[in-house]
Each structure stands twice: as structure tokens, then as C-alpha cells.
Amino acid sequence: MPVPTEDSALLAAFEARIAAGESIEPKDWMPDRYRKQLTRMMSQHAHSEVVGMLPEGNWITRAPSLRRKLSLIAKVQDEAGHGLYIYCGTETLGVDRHELVEQLLDGRAKYSSIFNYPTLAWADMGVIGWLVDGAAIVNQTVLAKASYGPYARAMVRICKEENFHKRQGYEICTVLANGTPAQKAMLQESVNRFWWPALMMFGPSDTNSPNSAELLKWRVKRKTNDELRQRFVNLTVPQAIALGITLPDPDLRFNETTGDWDIGEIDWSEFHAVLKGNGPCNHERMAARRKAHDDGAWVRAAATAHAQKQQARKDTAAA
Ligand code: FAQ
After folding, report:
1. Which residues line the pocket of ligand 1, CB cutoff 6 A?
2. I want to staple 112 with a disulfide (CB 3.0 to 4.6 A). Which of 39, 48, 65, 296 is the partner?
3. Residue with CA closest to ligand 1 atom 26
4. What is the 3-state secondary structure (H, E, C) of the chain?
């Protein structure tokens, strides 16, 4: 019989707290794997928010009115804020955000596949808000109940802002759907491009998701990738019907038995190609991130110098 070690007692106590629905906080004991899994997932999430500014940022100068420009700028700025909350969250796990940013910039870290698709038309600003923020909300509403306190709390605030993003996106879609034939066609063409990539945001199917078992066991994830994807489909199909547009899936059917909308086969070869860096915009996105990072070097240097000066003043006053 194995002799219980200190760690196994700590692990049992940790798992009992999770089973009781308690929140794990930064100074609490946690298994190394829990810390590693959270760092991986949260840093990828933070990177996604920051890279996710690029496709929409591309349309700020071309928004069709001042009102649209203002709300698009505000949305893109919100995404930067979400990245910052989540980077702060990862720092509570004992990692340095500079190291995480390095991992993104040198290609070791992932970010969401969806941001490797181009934004070719104004309608994409509506469709990203509706489908991409819509998918993010479905995922993040559940993550707001994740077992790690700092991540869960960041999600509560982020979901409030994402809800606003989704509404502004859907409102753009509504205007286009009720506009001229050319506007309606632009909307349809955008939905045709974004529907399948939005479904891929939820990750591989449950049978091919290596991280899910551990994340579900420790209640970081509370639903599987496929469960969340299905929830998103069920919520979104009626919204597409209300807009009078067609979702590009000939196999989409309402299943009377399950009450779900069944979808056709996802092209997983496309998903894996995008993850390997071969999506339509991977190179462009990373080049833009690296340039922004290099251009911001003087800001980081100035902020560090300022902080050091403040600290020196405090030290002198305390001496
Ligand atoms: N893209 O074993 P699983 C947003 C990777 S925020 C790229 O199932 P897991 C807001 C996965 O990392 C969007 N990689 O992994 C916004 C793993 O690789 P690794 C981001 C993906 O962690 C809107 C491997 O495949 N949201 O949109 C993707 O259990 C508009 C195996 O997968 C989050 O990050 C993918 N789609 O489940 C911003 C939410 N899917 O690390 C701007 C938090 C999977 O082993 C504008 N994250 N991979 O090398 C999650 O919920 C989870 O991490 C999943 C993946 C569901 C993404």
C-alpha cells in the first residue's frame, strides 16, 4: 500500500475544496499541474484578446460613420483591457508577463485561431461582434465559475463588456440585413466566411482534446468543448433566422429528439493548419504584434524609469 506523502494529503485537501465549490486563491497550495494548466490557458487567452484587436483595428479608419467609429474604437480598447486583466491574473500564478509575451512573439504560445482570418468588409465588424464575441461569451460565462478565483473574477467583468460588444455587432448585422440588396449580400458573404471559424474557437472535439480531462476534473472548465459549441449553435441559429440570412451548413437541422441544432462535419484539417501557423493571416498578425512590441520599447523604458524614480523617492523618504 502506498504511504501517503505530504503532497498526497495536500492534493486530497485541494481536491476536497474544489469538490465543495470553494475558490482557489493565489496563496493557496495547488498542484504543479493545476498551476501549469492555468498558466497555459490564461496566457493563451490573454494573447488572444491582444491579437484579437488587430482584425477590428483594421477597420477603425474606414468605419462608415462617426458613431460606428467611436463604438469600434471603444470595443478594440476594451479587448486590450481584457488582455491586461488576464495577464495580471497569470501573474498571480507566479509567472512574469514579459516571459509570456516573449512566448507569444517567438511563436511558442498559441492564441485563438479565429484571429488568423482577414476582415475584408465592413460587415465583418458586425459579424465578429455577433459570432466571435458571441462564442467568447458562451465560453467565458462558464469560465466565470472556474475554480481559480482571479481568473473567474476577471471573466465576470469581461463578460459584461463582451455582452455589449455582441449587441453592437448584432445591431450592425440588423441594419445591414434590413438595408439594400448589396448590404444584405455583404452580410451573407461575411457570415459565410466566419461561421465555421467561429465554431472552431471552442477547440477540438471532446475525443481529441488532451487538456479537457484535467481541466474538468479541477473545475477550471465546467463544460466540454463540444457542449459549449452546441450551446453556441443553439443560441445562434434563431438569431440568424431573425436576420434572414443562411448559415453555410447544408447539414444544419433541428433535432426533435435532442432539442439541439445538429451541424455538419467541421473541417479539422483547416483548424490544425491554422494552429500550425498556416492560416490566412498568421504571419501578418505576428508581424504586426512584433512591430507594436518593438515600437513600444520606449514606453516600457519610460514607465520603468518612472517607477524606479518613484521607488527611489520613497526609499529616501523612509530612510
Ligand atoms: N485556437 O485540449 P484542448 C475572444 C489548442 S477570446 C487556438 O481542447 P483546452 C474575445 C489548445 O490551446 C478567445 N488554439 O485545449 C475577443 C491546446 O494547445 P496546447 C480566446 C486552440 O485548453 C473577441 C490544443 O489546441 N478564448 O474571442 C484552439 O482544454 C473579439 C488542444 O486543445 C479563450 O482563450 C483555438 N480555437 O481548450 C477578442 C478562452 N482551441 O496549449 C477580440 C479560454 C484549442 O496544449 C475580438 N480558453 N486550441 O498547445 C479556453 O476555453 C480553452 O483553452 C479552449 C481550448 C476551449 C480554447
Report:
1. 40-41, 44-45, 48-49, 52, 79, 110, 112-113, 128, 132-133, 136, 139, 200-204, 209-212, 215, 225, 275
2. 48
3. 45
4. CCCCCHHHHHHHHHHHHHHCCCCECCCCCCCHHHHHHHHHHHHHHHHHHHHCHHHHHCCHHHCCCHHHHHHHHHHHHHHHHHHHHHHHHHHCCCCCHHHHHHHHHCCCCCCCHHHHCCCCCCHHHHHHHHHHHHHHHHHHHHHCCCCEHHHHHHHHHHHHHHHHHHHHHHHHHHHHHCCCHHHHHHHHHHHHHHHHHHHHCCCCCHHHCCCHHHHHHCCCCCCCHHHHHHHHHHHHHHHHHHHCCCCCCCCCEECCCCCCEECCCCCHHHHHHHHHHHCCCHHHHHHHHHHHHHHCHHHHHHHHHHHHHHHHHHHHHHC
> What average pLDDT does the segment 51-77 reach?
97
pLDDT tens digits along 97-116:
999 999 999 999 999 999 99
Mean pLDDT over 181-195 rounds to 98
What distance in angstroms lies between residue 182's CA and the mean position of ligand 1's atoms? 35
Pick the residue whose CA is nearest to atom 14 on ligand 1.
112
Output the CA 45–ligand 1 centroid distance in Å: 7
